[in-house]
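Aim 2, interim progress: modelling of the iron/sulfur cluster-bound target.
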Amino acid sequence: MNVIVAEKCGFCPGVRNAITLAYETLSKEKIVYSLGPIIHNQDVVNELSEKGLKTVDSMDQIPSGTVLIRSHGATKQQLNQIREKGLRIVDATCVLVKRVQKIGQQLHEEGYKVVIIGDENHPEVQAVVGYAEDVAVIGQVADLCKLSGHKKLGVICQTTQSPDHFAGMVAEIIRRGFSELKVVNTLCRETINRQEAAVKLCKQVDVMFVLGGLHSANTRKLAELCRKHNNATFHLQNWEELDTKVLAGRQTAGVTAGASTPDSVIERFVRHLQAYESSQNSKSSR
Ligand code: SF4
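Predicted structure of the complex, ligand included:
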């Protein structure tokens, strides 16, 4: 079996920066708090936890010390609480996420009803919501009812959505006839590059593997896109999760990975896949 890795996959600059900042901070301080997992990869979270990074769900669990803001950012309310408690902030919010927050705020100041196309449960979206009053989060067409009664809409998008989804939702909004729309493209180019590379690759292979955390939005989106073009697409966290029966009769495998998947996970998966294939060949040639 031939194994091909997508031209663009794995850690994005925002995630790489957050991990570097976490290690740098932990080299100077014994305990550092992270509001939510720093990335959707348990191995990395465990490794940083051994060095002193404490992952907490709420501000109430942070008595003192330093708080690392992950690449998804933090809500305005959380940032205010951090300041009120006199905690030190190490801000690893991705610059592209900061841009979405800033644009949301500007659109609100310009008098637009701010609309974000994205998942209301995603921390990046929850953080953006606090930067303007009364933001409407649109996850699916049914949510568009939230926009009735408004005339001027300022539309932005969660960074990791696909261009097709963003464009489709904007088209649905236009169909409903608002008098003024201002659409700002806030998609992340890194994400688009990964999605395009994954779609290109999955069309050329017999089986496609998408590696990354099951809760990682961008990994799930990669798997969803690949599944549209290749039914034999599997979203796995690592090699251990692979049922090798799915390799039977396949000649070429493609591998891609979400923005929070470490290189080591990708390399190990590819190595095992190649070794498995060699061992099957050597058995059949005996
Ligand atoms: S996926 Fe894009 S927006 Fe999100 S952290 Fe990475 S570089 Fe930043």
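Confidence is low (pLDDT under 50) at residues 282-286. The longest strand covers residues 152-157.
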